[in-house]
Amino acid sequence: MSKIAEIMEEPVIASVSPAPEIGTVPKMLSGGQALMECLLAEGVDTIFGYPGGAIMPIYDALYDYTDRIRHVLVRHEQGASHAAEGYARSSGRVGVCMATSGPGATNLVTGIADAIIDCTPMVAITGQVASHLLGTDAFQETDVIGITTPICKWNYQIIDPDEIPEILAKAFFIAQAGKPGPVLIDITKDAQTKLMSKKFEYKKVEKLAGYHPRRVPKIEQVEKAAEMINNAKRPYILFGHGVLISEAVKEFQAFVEKTDIPCASTLLGLSGMPIDHPNYMGWLGMHGMYAPNVMTDECDVLIAIGMRFDDRVTGDAELFAKQARIIHIEIDPAEIEKIKKTEAPVVGDIKEVLNLLMPLVKKGDYTAWKNEFRKLEPEEKLKVTDRDLGGSDQIKMAEVVKMVSDKTKGEACVVVDVGQHQMVAARYYQFKKPHSYIASGGLGTMGFAIPAALGAKMGAPDRNVIAFIGDGCFQMTIQELGTIAQSGLAVKLIILNNNFLGMVRQWQQLFFDKRYSFVELQNPDFITIARGFGIDGHKCTERESLEESIDKMLNHQGSYLLEVVVEKEENVFPMVPAGRSVSEIRLE
Amino acid sequence: MSTYTICVFTENSIGLLNKITVIFTRRRINIDSLTVSETERKGISRFTIVIKHEKREEVEKLVRQTRKIVEVLAVFGYLNDDIVYNEIALFKIATPLGSKPLDVDTINRVYKAWVVYWGLDYVAIQKTGTEVEIFDFFKYLKPYGIIEFVRSGRVAVGKTPQGLVEYLPEDMEWEYYL
Question: Which of 2.40.37.10, 3.90.660.20, 3.40.50.970, 3.40.640.10 would CATH assign to domain A393-566?
């Protein structure tokens, strides 16, 4: 059997068709077929990928599975990993991407690094040169295991097809369990081609010897947290991405309503709470809202839920909420006290923790305390919001976002790229539904939005997916317009074009004496480019035609590109200067 | 600066050393010594990593982060007082004709070291002990002319009555070594 595989690498496999059902297989499966069966067993319906030499046997196997697994041919492997992220973020399921060895694998790296820092479940599959060539600098050989070790939750190289079911089961478990993240599986070409020596059997993994994250917290920890919450005078909840990842939105809202504690979200926690909820005070961080930021200096008990005290949230971590006693609810024990001393850590899945916490907490009277937040709002409105929303000849980014928000009733799934527009979208989109702000938060990856928007649409086909993208970001993954066009799906793309790398320019203005070093762009005609890819669009330059433009985009069947020329030198405020205390927040 | 000994129990798989050391690299912590061997349980390796650090909290973070590696089963960080530890060193000493003869008796009795190989014009001496003891012996031997000196990494066991088994996942049936 192995002999046949050795002699006849491709032909043997190509002739096995159609793909046999599990359990009734008279013949042994090839590595490539086994991989497909694993993906089916895990319920994978979509793969974002790009073929190449060392992954051809897998693509050949895939050819027989296209009725059950949809493959999206991206235009660059970076697009595959970001699309997988978008898919995972909108659907809550594992995003799967696939690439060949060498450059294919290295092109996935940015998306993998993005996924680990934003806790996005992903399985990346890479082809590798045949096992006898490993380590010889063979054509398109690269040590992808070595390269991705620091950015993967787990990675593994398969050289024997018999390993495939077990390793893939582990991969999907690890990608989703505990704090989700990316897993990379590298499969040598011979392992893809060879037949398995035993019958294919797939057993899902539920626990590993070294990895069995605690979901249900220790009750003493919950009791301690409850006691601190109940005795607090000025408690304040900061919640992050974890609330969304753990699908605990309902439980979280119930918890907030029962205790009546004011809450604010991190950037990635956005849409975890409807924006018009009376206890929701906004989001905090470097460009977050005024009250949520400065009130971290006023609370006596800070309840951090599913967030990790990122430096863009805390500014100077030493000074951040230094007066407060901290409760930290988090699934990853390594996050506890990584940044802030914590009096009451609660390690567990947020949904489980909240379920246990609910009966122990009581309602407090925080009317006056909540009013302190609300009292700060007029100042922000006057100094920031009113300015952002008008008072200039040119269109402002905020106006565009606000109008799109109003017209979509705050119910769209918003995908953003990285920079000023990302912050403006976070400020002015009025999120009403969970899983609606998909951004590269931790890594800050420019070029994220186009592929992630396509992935998000595939993960949530019933939702209206709208991407806000800067003119700089747009050109980093512009080729994925082709993928969107080929998919036939309706993804709405909005370029907020200020002809600048706006955020860098803002920093240069504020912190580098206006020395604008390489931030001005000579942009192409984006609409012509989109049309070249088969995506319709138009450019809006006047405020008078903005509403009509947005209507046109929203009503268009299929994908659409709207380019809005916005004010060139606009700054995003509020702003907590990097590494400073939130008390140094600037409103202008 | 305190010396910390970090014991990491892992499954025995390819590339694990790299997975562990990148965590040290990211935090810019230099590894003083490193020893890896299989434990009394088949398929379970033990890494003994010695580092120096000023802040205990930072070492605690390192330990927690190391525990996150999927193949890692347990991690312990120790101060020197918490463990019994030793290293082994080999010295190659020149003994040409007419040179000052080695005082083997002192080497054996005072330094608890042994000549393990007699060459024609050199000997190899083996010494087991702590870093301090080994360097003490180094000073003693120096006048004789040290051609070569090599020191192993530290090996250590905790001063608690428990064994490794008590920290491993409960429902795993590990095969004993031997």
Answer: 3.40.50.970
Average pLDDT, chain A: 94
Q: Is A420 an annotated catalytic residue?
A: no
Task: Name the residue facing B19 among A149, A157, A209 (closest C-beta).
Answer: A149
B17 within some domain: yes
B63 reaches A (C-beta below 8 A): no
State how far the Cα of A405 lies from the Cα of B28, in Å rounded to an integer: 45
CA-to-CA dists, residue A213 to A207, A334, B20, angstroms: 9, 11, 19
Q: What is the DSSP letter of A575?
A: B
Is there a catalytic annotation at residue A253? Answer: no
- Domains A2-193 and A219-373 fall in the same CATH topology: yes
What is the ipTM metric for this complex?
Answer: 0.89
B-chain CB neighbours of A211 within 8 Å are: 70
Quick: pLDDT tens for A352-364.
Answer: 999 999 999 999 9
Q: Which residues of A365-395 are buried (b: 16+ CB within 10 A; e: fewer)?
A: ebeebbebbeebeeebeebbbebbbeeeeeb
Q: How far apart are CA A570 and CA A578, in angstroms?
A: 19
Structural domain span for residue B132: 84-151
Contact A150 B57 (CB under 8 A): no
**Domain count of chain B?**
2
Cα A390 to Cα A398: distance, rounded to the nearest angstrom: 9
CATH number of A2-193: 3.40.50.970
Segment A148-175 mean pLDDT: 98
CA distance B33 to chain A (A): 22
Backbone angles phi, psi at B129, to 5 degrees: 165, -170
The CA distance from A194 to A339, in Å, is 49
Return residues 81-140 of A near B (CB < 8 Å): none
A504-518 pLDDT per residue, tens: 999 999 999 999 999
- B81: its two tokens: 């007082």
Q: Which pTM value belongs to this model?
A: 0.93
Does the annotation mark A503 as catalytic? yes
CB atoms within 10 A of CB A552: 16
Listed residue (A212, A155, A211, A25) closest to B15, CA to CA: A155
Q: Which fold has domain A219-373?
A: Rossmann fold (3.40.50)
d(CA B126, CA B134): 10
- Any CB–CB contact under 8 A between A26 and chain B? no
